[in-house]
Amino acid sequence: MVDFFKEEIAPTSLNMSSKKELLSSAMKRTSEWIFSQEIPSDVTVQVGGVSFSLHKFPLISKSGFVRKVVSESNDADHSIIEIPNVPGGADSFELAAKFCYGINFEISTENIAMLRCAAEYLEMTEDYAVGNLVGRTEAYLNEVALKSLAGAVSVLHMSESLLPIAEEVKLVSRCIDAIAYLACKESQFYMSSRSDSGNDSTISLTTTNSRPIVDWWAEDLAVLRIDIFQRVLIAMVARGFKQYDLGPVLMLYAQKALRGLEVFGKGRKKIEPRQEHEKRVVLETIVSLLPREKNAMSVSFLSVLLRAAIYLETTVACRLDLERRMALQLGQAVLDDLLIPAYSVTGDTLFDVDTMQRILTNYVEYETEGHHFGYKEDDEYISPPPSDMERVGKLMESYLVEIASDRNLPISKFIGLAELIPEQSRVTEDGMYRAIDIYLKVHKSPS
C-alpha cells in the first residue's frame, strides 16, 4: 500500500530522453510503480494541468472513456490524451490509474466520493472489466461508508464539490437517506435507554435537555452547505425525527454559519456584498426550518437571529416570523435580548424601537386574544400566567429607561411604546416615572 501527498503541480510535457529533468510532481509520485513495469510509457494523459506518463493497455482495458478517446482519435500515435473534467481532478485520476494498473491503495470516506464520481466519468464499469472501479466503490459505500453517521456525513460533504455528477450517480440522495435513517435510529435509542434507566423525569422538552440527543453528530452536520443541510433535515423529519428536536441542530449550524456578523454593534454594516448574500440565504433557510412549537428555541437565540436578519436585510416575512416567535416567549426574555441595534445611517436611534414595538404589539394581542400568528388552528393555546404579564411589564419599563437617554428618540415613539404596556402588568408606576424623568431631562429644550 502506498501513501500519497497532495501538492500544487504545473503543466508538464515529457519526452523519454529527458524524463528525469521534466517529471512533474504527479510523475514523481507514480514513477516507481509505472517504471517498474519495465515497458516504456506510450501515452501522456493530461488532467487539470497535470501530466501522467502511462501505458495505453491498462487504461483502455478498464476505462470505457479512454478506450473511446483512443478509438475515435485521428492521431495514429495517440501519444497524448486530454481529460479536462475528471471529478476530483488529478488526485482522483491518479487513484483511478493505479486501479487500472492493479496497484493497491486505500479507499476511505475522504476519497470515496471523488473515486465513485471519477469511476463513473471514466466509465470504469463491469462492461469493460470484472470487479471494475464502479463496483468496488459501490461496495465500499454500501458496506462501510454509509453504515455510520460520521461516514455518511463525510461522504456527503465531499460530494458537494463534485456536483452535478454526484447527484447523477445518486451519491447525494443516498447519503442524505442514510443520515436521516441513522439519526432517527440514534435518537430513538437514546430516548429508549433513558426511559429504561428510570429517569423519565429528566427528559424535558427544552433546548438544553434535548441537546445531548444530537450534539455528537449535529456538529458534523454543520460542515454541510446550506441547501444540502436543509435537505438532510427535511429527510430526517420525513423519517420521523421530531421537529422540536431540530432546535439544537439548527443552533449549532447557525453559530457556525453566521459567525463574524457584528450583530451587537451600532452604525453602518461592514460586510462584503457577496458574503452578505450568502449569509442572508443561510439565515432565511434556518428560520424556515425552525420548529413551530413554542419554547423549542430560547428567546435569546431568537433575538440573535432577529439581529442578524435586520443586519442582513432578509425578507420581511423572515423578520416578522422571528418577531412573532419572540413575542410568544417575551416573558422569558431579559433586557439585553430587546436592545437590538439600529443598523442605519448616523443620526437615527441607537436601538431599533420599531421592531420592539411590533414585538410588544404581538405579545399584547397574543395575551389578550389568543392569536396563533400563523400556527395551526388546532394548536393548543395556553394563556400566560399573570406573573408572566407582570414580568413583561417590568421588562418593558426597563427597556423604556434604557432608550430614554437616546437624544434621537422621537417623543412619538417613546409614548407609543409606553402606551402599549398593558395596565394590568404594571405592579407599580415607578419604572414608568423613572423612564419619563430620564427622557425629559435628556430632551429638555436648551435655555
From TrEMBL:
Could you state one GO biological process linked to this protein?
Answer: protein ubiquitination
| UniProt superkingdom | Eukaryota
**What InterPro entries does the entry give?**
BTB/POZ_dom (IPR000210), NPH3/RPT2-like (IPR043454), NPH3_dom (IPR027356), SKP1/BTB/POZ_sf (IPR011333)
Do the record's keywords include Phosphoprotein? yes
Instruction: Give the BTB domain ranges.
Output: 41-109
The biological pathway it contributes to is:
Protein modification; protein ubiquitination
Question: Pfam families annotated for this entry?
Answer: BTB, NPH3
Question: Where do the NPH3 domain residues begin and end?
Answer: 215-447
Q: Which SMART domains match?
A: BTB
Supply the alphabetized keyword list: Phosphoprotein, Ubl conjugation pathway
Name the family. Answer: Belongs to the NPH3 family.
> What's the protein here called?
BTB domain-containing protein
